[in-house]
Each structure stands twice: as C-alpha cells, then as structure tokens.
Amino acid sequence: MSGMMRREQFIGGGVILAVAALVGVGLWQISHPRAARWVAVGRYPQGVMGTDCTLAAVVQEGEEGRAEQALDEAEAVLRGVESRMSTWLSDSEISRLNAAGAGEEVPLSPETLAVLRAAREAAGESEGAFDVTVRPLINLWRGAGERDRLPTEAEVAEARAASSWEMIELTEKGAIKRRAEASVDLGGVAKGYAIDRAIETLQRAGGGGGLVDVGGDLRCFGRPLEGEEWPVEVKDPFAEGNLGELRVRNAAVCTSGNYARFTVIGGKPYSHIIDSRSGRPAAAVPSVTVIAPEALTADVWATALSVLGVQGLERLPPEADAVMVLGDKEDYGITCTPRVAKLVGGPLRERLTVWQAD
Fold this sequence. Notes:
single chain, alpha+beta, ten-stranded mixed β-sheet, four-stranded antiparallel β-sheet, 27% helix, 28% strand
C-alpha cells in the first residue's frame, strides 16, 4: 500500500470536543446557573478546510437571531481564510505565490501577510522546527509515497535547498521568491489563525460563551450551556477512543500527530510532518496537544513539538501548555507541563508524568 492515507486541506486530528449533547440539534435551552435563561445555538458547516466543523454560541433567550448572524459571519471568516491560504485551491493567494517565478512580487492580502510574518517568527522561536517553507519537502515525500520509493539523498538535499526563508522575501504588499522552486504550506498555522478570527466575531456579538472547532482544533470562550468549563477529549493515537479529558475555559486547544495523516513507503508509515532541518518526516512524538490563549499559538506549537519532542517544551511560550504522548502502542507514556495536570481527567492520569524545566 502506498500514497497518502488522508489528503485534506488543513489537518486537525486528535482533539474532539465532547459537546454532542450540546451541539447536536441546533438549538437547546435549559435553566442556567446565571440569572437569565440561556440558550445555545450551533451548527455544523460542511466542507470547511476539508474537515469537520462545529460552531456554537451561548446567548440569552430571545437573542437567537443575533447568534445565528454571528455564526454566519464566523463561518464566512473561516471560508475566507481558506480561500486565500489553502494550497488545495489553485486560485488562492498562496497557490499563486507558489506558482510564481523567481523575482516576481506576488500581491497578498494583509491577512495572508500577517500569517506569513507570524510563521516566520515562529520558525525562529522554534529553531526551524516549525517552517512553512517546507513545502518542497512535503511534495517530495508525497511523491515518494505515490511511487512507493524512498527519496534519494540527492533529492532530499535539493528539496531542502528550496525549503528556506532565505528564498522568500516579504514586502509591504506581498512576497518575492528568490528561487522559483520555493513554496510555502500554511497548513500548520492558517487554521489556527482562522479559528481566532472566527472567535473574535462571536465575541463581538456578545453572549455568554462560544466555540469554534475545525477538524478537532478549537478555541472557546465563556461558559458552555452546562457547567463552567468546556470538556475536550484527547484522542488515543494508537487505537479508537480517547485517552482522557481536558476541561478548559477561554482557551484554544490544538493537536498534531503522526497517526491521522501519513505516507506509506515500502509498508512503513511516515508522518506528514516534515522536519526541515533534516529534510525527513518527524518521528519524535505520536501526539501533541497544546493549550494556549490563541489558536494560532496552539496550532504552531503542536507542530513544532511534534518535531522537537520533550526537549522542545523548554521553548514553549510561557502562556502555553502541552500534553505529549510518547513511545508506541506497546509502551507509551504521557508527559505534560505543570499547569495542564490540573486540567487532566480520566485515564490520562494513569500514565501521566509532569514535566519540570531544568
């Protein structure tokens, strides 16, 4: 068997919000502990970034119309980011940049430029573990899967030479490639950015709480309809089901791992996450879940820690936390940063080790 096991525009995977009872029928209402009567309005937009999507808003009874409008606007935000930044759409800004020749300035929207600048900054903070310029290497390994043949050292070296921020200059209005083969893939950052912008839309509409979940990567604010915190299940990377549950409020949760999307070459699976420093698929961590105030931060560092492993926790921004599944199906453990230990429930605790900085 060869080729990509799953091909999506933006891959999430790993974190599933446990809100089936809350977001299953579109509109629910119960007596809330607060004085007013609260209702939750939710929906499941189809075809957003090639994956599942859940939007929810908690508002006072009588404000359902305003909530519906806010959800419409939040969905439009998500689709707008996809239309500009997806490499799976041939007419997106990023696709036009990737197709451009060397020396040609490609106009980009302020949003796309903002994401590229954030990605460039993240590359420095992670010492290259997170690198959106790695698309030539992604294409190399994807092609290797389709041919069922490992790339040669020369092919890896050539793709690595084109996978560098030195090959891309960001200007005030766009970007210029210094080498035609250079290209970018925003799959590890654009979804987080889109989720943040969609949440901001819901927050501006008011209400008691809200959720944006795209492919298992999510951000929430306020309270859900029931309880004080949003329950988030952490998927088992080795089998069906979940390892346990996190409970969060006013936070983003994003997961990256090598179990949801991979290439098979010679019967062996290779992660879709590429380490630009080696030019090869990352193999350090089966699953990483990052909790942060913003989804962009959580999205970036879920990918970066998949490359860096436990040692990368020292580089994690101070406002972020992580849960890492290490090892393999027969012998695995779970490591988390200290603050996450307070959020963890269920079977996660049985194999939990709390990481401490040296």
